[in-house]
Amino acid sequence: MAAPVIGATSYVEESSMGTWHDMPAVWLPDDYIAPLRAAGAVVAVLPEQDPALAADALARVDALYLTGGYDVDPAVYGADAHERCDAPRAGRDAWEIALVREATAQGMPILGVCRGAQVLNVARGGTLHQHVPDVVGHDDYQMGDAIFRDLGVSVLPDTLLATLHPLEREVPMYHHQAIDRLGEGLVVAARSVHGLVEAIEDPAQAFCLALQWHPEHDELTAVWDGFVAAARSSAAR
């Protein structure tokens, strides 16, 4: 059977490489997509563009992968920005929300990681805690300097995630925002030791799962294998 094609969202930011400096560039850390390659998928990067083209983009892939990145603009869910919020990336927000809504309408497999979990929730009408230390009282979830912190999560039984991940385990964290009010149709699939929502899913879809932690920095592969298997089934249909 042919390898499934997974569409992955990406950054569009000023970057430098060699003699080229401060150029707008489409980029994505390889850590995000290496597990998909290892699981047998082809990855197509979907940089931000006109949200009206979401259906055309998804017509050419078998699954949608929402990767990490900067904060979702609080204006999207009707809130004023916290002082610690990143500068808005309105184009990326609009593009990814359009992709989520189209993929959901099609019943296409969706996997979100970190920002991807937040985008999924906001696209369904949910909201975010804009700065986790205001909720839990410490900075353990984002230590800074790209240092991932292992913290415990509890996966809820009878969820899709429970078929792919141990019910109790430490996982690599790096996020200063988190899911607050759940979006329509979404349920909690895991919580942290401090009660924060760390994974969500849509039980009405064959595969719609998003993790607030970073499985690309974890040795477990079952989530990736399950997502690629779902993409392969989607391609066969």
Protein model, in words:
The structure is a single chain. With 237 residues, this protein is α/β, with parallel strands linked by helices. It has helices at 30-38, 54-58, 90-106, 115-123, 133-136, 222-236; strands at residues 5-9, 11-17, 20-27, 42-46, 63-66, 110-113, 128-129, 149-155, 168-173, 178-179, 187-192, 197-201, 208-211. It contains six helices and 13 strands. The strands form three sheets. A nine-stranded mixed sheet has the order 4-1-5-6-13-12-11-8-9, sandwiched between helices. A two-stranded antiparallel sheet has the order 2-3. The protein is globular. The relative contact order is 0.18. The model has no long low-confidence stretch (mean pLDDT 96).
Briefly, what is this?
The chain has 237 residues and is of the alpha/beta class.
Classify the fold: give the CATH topology: Rossmann fold
How confident is the prediction overall: mean pLDDT?
96
| Radius of gyration, CA atoms, in whole angstroms | 17 Å
Instruction: Label the overall shape.
Output: globular
Taken as a percent bin, the fraction of beta residues is 25-35%
Q: Work out the helicity level.
A: 10-25%
Largest sheet strand order: 4-1-5-6-13-12-11-8-9
| Total beta strands | 13
Number of helices: 6
| CATH H-level superfamily | Class I glutamine amidotransferase (GATase) domain
The CATH architecture designation is 3-Layer(aba) Sandwich
Q: What is the CATH class designation?
A: Alpha Beta
**Unreliable parts:** none
Distance between the termini: 12 Å
Topology as H/E string?
Answer: EEEHEHEHEHEHEEEEEEH
